[in-house]
Write a structure and sequence with these properties.
Layout lengths: L1 H20 L3 H13 L4 H13 L3 H14 L4 H13 L3 H14 L4 H13 L3 H14 L4 H13 L3 H14 L4 H13 L3 H8 L15 E2 L9 E5 L4 H7 L3 H5 L4 E6 L1 H8 L6 E4 L8 E4 L3 H5 L28 E6 L9 H4 L14 E5 L13 E4 L5 H9 L3 E4 L2 H9 L3 E4 L2 H5 L4
Parallel strand pairs: 1-5, 2-3, 2-5, 3-4, 6-7, 6-9, 7-8, 9-10
């Protein structure tokens, strides 16, 4: 009788798994709840936990899978799901514990070592992350994700030779892996290998959507005299500000330059005398040639050692506002990156980090867009809000120094020739993490 009942429960578990595989989450959940009504079942709780991860209800996911573990703590899959739930809610220290518990039970599952390495990376425990990624690659030699993140971690540790080797290994395994090529290109640029860097950087275009049916011929260095060049937006205002300076060189050829950009950047770009017109990113006016803005350097074969650099290259009307204090060093501060960015957790800095850095000689103005007057740190004199890049540029142009984790703010400050410190936490606190 008991065996027959066990078989019936297993059939229901299989049914729930099938529902889950078809993304029929409600049916899977109801099936599992029905099973549990008749008595605790580790697999049913585990399926419920997986559903809750998908639904981003992480606390419920953790609650359910802990019940699975309480029934059977020898199943590594339960500990892995617990680790994934903790990772999803950004509790990486707890996810490390869960993944290590899974590895104690079975240390031959490559993906668990990979998950552990990613949790260590998020905690900025880079040496532990490296060890975990190598364990992943030992168990699964073609695991491109492990080599990709090895490259990223080595880059954070400023070990660029090892970073390059890791990215090259990715490409050896998967030659068309655009993210590996892109990261390799960025690494080459960091060490000053501009020829290889710009070439590999072109792989970013595999990740972009270019409306080829609305475009004419791509510009690859042809004479632009009396021609119209459309510069395509790539969806990142930071890159737009960084690369826009290269358009100055093209204006020497008496061409007309039209630049696609975001609504936030439009006024600032339109106000530059060497740009004929700024348009929305979904506009495609008549043009002779086009080029994505990030491809300008590859076509121009840009090398800062061989090209004249002119700063400032963005012009704004200075406005001596109440932001400044003439008796102090006026500092603009940003400690949180865009919350929609995948790099938010890696690049943002706790405002407490700056607690003992400033003194009475400093007038610190918070430019962080997520701060309110209620959450403004005590060391800041005020919080400045802005609705577009023109307004932000005007504020920055009146400051003496910018300290930021946000790349857009750093690029704007650099374009305005304002002294800038771009904070990278891993570089600030060293390699021995």
């Amino acid at each position: 009788m008991a065996k027959e009942q066990d078989n019936q429960v297993q059939q229901e578990i299989n049914k729930a798994i099938n529902f889950l595989g078809q993304n029929k989450f409600l049916e899977a959940e109801n099936t599992c709840l029905k099973i549990i009504d008749s008595g605790d079942n580790a697999d049913a709780y585990h399926i419920l936990s997986s559903i809750k991860i998908y639904q981003q209800e992480f606390e419920d996911s953790i609650k359910y899978v802990k019940k699975s573990i309480a029934i059977n703590d020898a199943n590594p899959g339960y500990h892995v799901t617990l680790g994934c739930a903790y990772s999803a809610k950004k509790d990486y220290q707890s996810s490390v514990t869960a993944f290590k518990n899974a590895i104690k039970i079975n240390n031959k599952i490559a993906q668990v070592h990979f998950y552990l390495g990613e949790s260590y990376r998020k905690l900025k425990k880079y040496n532990d992350a490296i060890s975990s990624f190598y364990n992943t690659a030992e168990l699964s030699p073609d695991h491109v994700g492990a080599y990709l993140l090895l490259g990223v971690v080595y880059q954070e540790k400023k070990q660029f030779d090892l970073s390059i080797k890791a990215f090259q290994k990715c490409i050896e395994i998967m030659p068309d892996y655009a993210e590996a090529h892109l990261n390799l290109g960025l690494c080459y640029l960091l060490i000053g290998d501009y020829e290889n860097g710009w070439r590999e950087y072109e792989w970013r275009r595999k990740l972009l959507k270019e409306s080829n049916d609305k475009l004419s011929k791509e510009w690859s260095g042809q004479n632009l005299e009396n021609k119209t060049l459309l510069v395509l937006d790539e969806g990142a205002d930071g890159n737009l500000i960084h690369f826009i300076r290269f358009i100055r060189e093209l204006k020497k050829e008496s061409c007309k330059v039209i630049v696609q950009c975001s609504e936030e950047a439009k006024t600032l770009i339109d106000n530059q005398k060497w740009i004929d017109k700024a348009i929305a990113a979904d506009e495609f006016p008549e043009h002779d040639f086009y080029i994505p803005i990030g491809s300008l350097m590859n076509v121009l074969k840009y090398n800062p050692n061989h090209h004249e650099q002119i700063f400032p290259y963005i012009e704004v009307d200075t406005d001596q506002t109440s932001t400044n204090d003439k008796g102090q060093v006026n500092i603009g501060l940003v400690f949180e990156t865009d919350r929609n960015s995948n790099a938010h957790d890696d690049e943002s800095i706790d405002p407490g980090f700056f607690e003992n850095i400033f003194n009475e000689k400093h007038n610190v103005i918070c430019l962080d867009k997520y701060v309110t007057n209620e959450t403004l740190p005590d060391y800041c004199s005020k919080h400045i809000t802005y609705s577009n890049l023109q307004e932000l540029s005007t504020v920055i142009s009146n400051l003496d120094l910018i300290i930021t984790v946000d790349h857009l703010v750093a690029h704007l400050a650099g374009a305005l020739n304002i002294d800038t410190i771009l904070c990278c936490l891993a570089f600030l606190i060293g390699d021995g993490i």
